[in-house]
């Protein structure tokens, strides 16, 4: 199995690589469109700022590449935001895989949301074997609305999508690579998904 990690100006690539190594996978970190299209799985990680990330992707033609991938894709944190329709962070148009809007947390608590929190209403193949109320590790100042694509929810100041799934695209707001056994199960479930949409 080949696993590609999208290389762009966003952090947490090394922690994702180490988590995949623990599962016996050595990913290719790449911004080459053909390598992304031909991989069996693609991980779209991210810790950063939406508008600069979208500019970087667009300048290299990776925005259209990522949005058109046919194999299982997993967005992580900023990767989830960029797969949505729009982000309030610098009023950014994103990839539009999901119709949800990404919003800034209201100023009623400590921002960013950082640390362990529980997920609920879990469903779908990404969460096979992950129990309701599992603890995941979050670091984010913006969140995606809940909608039909929500496959896990979390609450911090407001309820929000902890995960989204649509077709071959899956995304999580938390960092599975930093979320212990439950996060490792999410990554293993992603690696085990059916290879391509028909």
Could you characterize the architecture of this molecule?
By secondary structure, the chain is an alpha/beta fold. It has one domain (3-191): Rossmann fold, CATH 3.40.50.880. 25% of the residues lie in helices and 29% in strands. It contains 6 helices and 13 strands. The protein has helices at 13-22, 33-38, 50-59, 62-67, 78-83, 180-191; strands at residues 3-6, 28-30, 41-44, 73-76, 86-87, 92-93, 101-104, 113-118, 135-140, 142-144, 150-156, 158-166, 169-172. The strands form 3 sheets. Strands 2-1-3-4-13-12-11 form a 7-stranded mixed β-sheet. Strands 6-5-7-10 form a 4-stranded mixed β-sheet.
Q: Which terms summarize this structure?
A:
6 helices; globular; four-stranded mixed β-sheet; alpha/beta; Rossmann fold; seven-stranded mixed β-sheet; 198 residues
Short description:
With 198 residues, the chain is of the alpha/beta class.
What do we call the CATH homologous superfamily?
A: Class I glutamine amidotransferase (GATase) domain
Number of helices: 6
What structural class should be given to the helix and strand makeup?
A: alpha/beta
Q: Could you give the distance between the termini?
A: 19 Å
- State the helicity in percent bands: 25-40%
Q: What does the overall shape look like?
A: globular
- What name is given to the CATH topology? Rossmann fold
Order of helices and strands: EHEHEHHEHEEEEEEEEEH
How much of the polypeptide forms β-strand, as a percent range?
Answer: 25-35%
Instruction: Give start-end ranges of low-pLDDT stretches.
Output: none
Count of domain modules: 1
User: Quick one: CATH class?
Assistant: Alpha Beta
Using the CA coordinates, give the radius of gyration: 15 Å
Mean pLDDT: 95
């Amino acid at each position: 199995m080949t696993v590609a990690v999208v290389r762009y100006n966003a952090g947490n690539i090394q922690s994702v690589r180490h988590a995949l190594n623990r599962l016996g996978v050595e990913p290719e970190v790449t911004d080459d469109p053909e390598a992304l299209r031909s991989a069996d799985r693609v991980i779209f990680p991210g810790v950063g700022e939406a508008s600069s990330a979208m500019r970087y992707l667009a300048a290299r033609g990776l925005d259209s590449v990522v949005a058109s991938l046919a194999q299982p894709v997993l967005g992580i944190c900023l990767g989830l935001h960029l797969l949505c329709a729009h982000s309030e962070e610098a009023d950014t148009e994103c990839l539009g895989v999901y119709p949800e809007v990404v919003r800034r947390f209201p100023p009623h608590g400590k921002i960013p949301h950082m640390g362990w929190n529980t997920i609920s209403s879990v469903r779908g193949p990404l969460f096979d074997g992950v129990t309701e109320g599992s603890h995941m590790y979050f670091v984010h100042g913006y969140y995606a609305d809940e909608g039909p694509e929500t496959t896990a929810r979390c609450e911090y100041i407001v309820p929000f999508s902890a995960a989204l799934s649509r077709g071959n695209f899956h995304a999580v707001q938390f960092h599975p690579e930093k979320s212990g056994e439950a996060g490792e199960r999410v990554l293993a479930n992603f690696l085990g998904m059916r290879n391509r949409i028909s």
